[in-house]
Please model this.
Amino acid sequence: MIGQNIQQVYGRIAEACGEYDRDADDITVVAVTKNHPTMVIQTAVAAGLHDIGESRIQEAEPKIREAGPIARYHLVGHLQSNKVKKAVELFDVIQSVDSLKLAEEINRQAGAIERRIECLIEVNCSGESQKFGVSPDDCLGLVRTVADMDNIELIGLMTIGPYVDDEEQIRRAFAKCNQLFKRGRDIVGDRFDTLSMGMSDDFPLAIAEGSTMIRIGSSLFGPRRS
Model:
C-alpha cells in the first residue's frame, strides 16, 4: 500500500513539475509519520523515502530511538523552548523556528552538545491567527540574526498554506514565501537552499510557486491514527 502511494505521489510531483516547468529532481519529499508507529517509518525508508517528519517531541522520541539513524529526521511541528534540548538531540532538521528567543535556545542547546543543527525559519504567510510562524515583515530580520549563530546552519524557510479552497489565495501565500526565500538567499548565500512548503492537499500549488521540499503524510500513509 505505501509503495503504491509513493508512486502516486511521485506521479503527482512529476505532473506538477511538467505543468509548471520545474525539475522533479529538485523536490524533496518529507514523509510525515505523525500518529503512525515506528514500523511505518521503517517501511517508508525501505521504500526509498529518506526524510521523515514528526510534529511532537513526546511522540517522536521513542520512534526515532527505536528506528535509529536510518533517515534524516525533521521536526515539522511547533517547538516549545522547554523541549529544545531534546529536539537538538533527536532531529537533524528543525523546520519550525519562529522567534529569536527560540533560535537562541536552539543555538545554546546545540552548542552544549557540540552540534551544528540545520534549521528553517517558519513564516506565517497566510496571516491566519491560529498558525505559528514569524510574520513576513519580521522574517528577513530574523534571517540575518539567525544566520550568524554559531550552532545553527540556516538552510531556508518553511510555511503552511492557508486552509481555504481558493487556489489563488493559496498560491499568493506560497509566492510571498518564495519572494522572502529569494531575498533570504541574498543575505545568507548558497547554503540557504530549502523552501519547505506544500502538503498532501496543496503541494502542486507549492511546486508552482517554487517549493523545493514538500511535507506529505496522509497521501502516503492514509488517515492518521488518533
Q: What stands out?
A: The mean pLDDT is 96. The beta strands are 28-32, 51-54, 72-75, 93-97, 117-122, 152-159, 194-197, 213-216.
